[in-house]
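Narrative of activities, Objective 1.

The group set out to show that a structural description can be obtained from nothing but a protein's sequence at a throughput compatible with the screening campaign. Below is one input-output pair from the validation batch, recorded exactly as produced.
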Amino acid sequence: MKIGAVIAEYNPFHNGHQYQLEVFRQKHHLDYIIVIMSGNFTQRGEPACMDKHLRARSALLGGADLVLELPVFYALGSAPVFASGAVAHLNRLNCIDYLCFGCETDGDSGRHLQLLEQAADILIHEPAPFREHLTDGLKSGLSYPAAREKALKALMDVPPLLTQPNNILALEYVCALKASASSIRPDILQRKGEGYHSSVQKGDFLSASALRGSLHSAKDLHYINAMNGIPDTTRQILETFYRQRLPMASADFSGLFAAAMLSRSGSLTDYCDVTPDIANRMRRCFHEYTDLDSYLLRLKNRAYTYSRLSRCAAHILLDIPASVLSRARADGYAYYARILGFRQDSRALLTLLKQTASIPMITKMTACPEILHGNGLRLMQADIFAADIYRTACQMKFGQPLKNEYSQPIVII
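Output recorded for this entry:
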């Protein structure tokens, strides 16, 4: 039995994602593809445009066989945390043969993978020259990602493509595989169509950013019906739940974030990614707070990217302390694998996972207190709280009651 894996957000699931799954399956003659997907919040620190259960359904209809949830502690992490958390979960399943990820390449995937592996070795071992260049970059006021990129370029020939958003994540996946001595083999697929941040809304292969832009600007169902770049199955989900459960955006959490800030009497540095300087800026700028988007723009400067600050805000909103993440990192990240959905014809895969996985497969939320303990239970509680926050914001926006984590069934196609 050959099994492949994909790490994803599917925000939303589009033609490029479906293409990846199809090519990945055909290339390696895979029997099953497992997707580990972010929950209701994404790596940029923003809420997903639609909830994890709808996105899991899109993925299953688009070619995935099983969808697992990446815990919010990792889904909201920096690129290294996001990648390390996801890869750790796949390692603990003990049955994955390949991990496929999309890259912007010059057409030579083999050469591109060699460059990623060369860069990963430098980042993992951090030779003295690399650390010196990194320190110099940080002292000059560069953000950490920019300083790291500059230090890497000082030690190897880094083509411009290697610094593209998807390639940055690809590099972290390779780092995580190498650092964990994983038996999973990386597999690169060249991205089709528009770039990661492209806002172009014409063609069959659009960026997720462009699709979210179309979704948020849609005035009625006619606009969704006319959207390019998505499979018909995704379109049907968007049409069915439009203005009932989607679309969601950062602005919809402005009030909840303000309440969180007002209730946090302790130090903001207790939360993931929040340095003393960021904490001071957040407290100072909060006196003029009107909404979350404009607040984050006021916080942004040369040293701190918008994504970094957005993650800080999300960590505060969702009560995600750095101490719990530190413990999880020391424990190897993976405590459980929560199943969001699966295909009926993939039950043999579930049977296999029960035999091979070295972490519990969670299918019933009510059983978590009996199955999980300590930090593992704390991470699951964070997932539940994040889902409650998202559900509350969604209900406030659309006025529709939604099921909580205990009553929401697994998606079965």
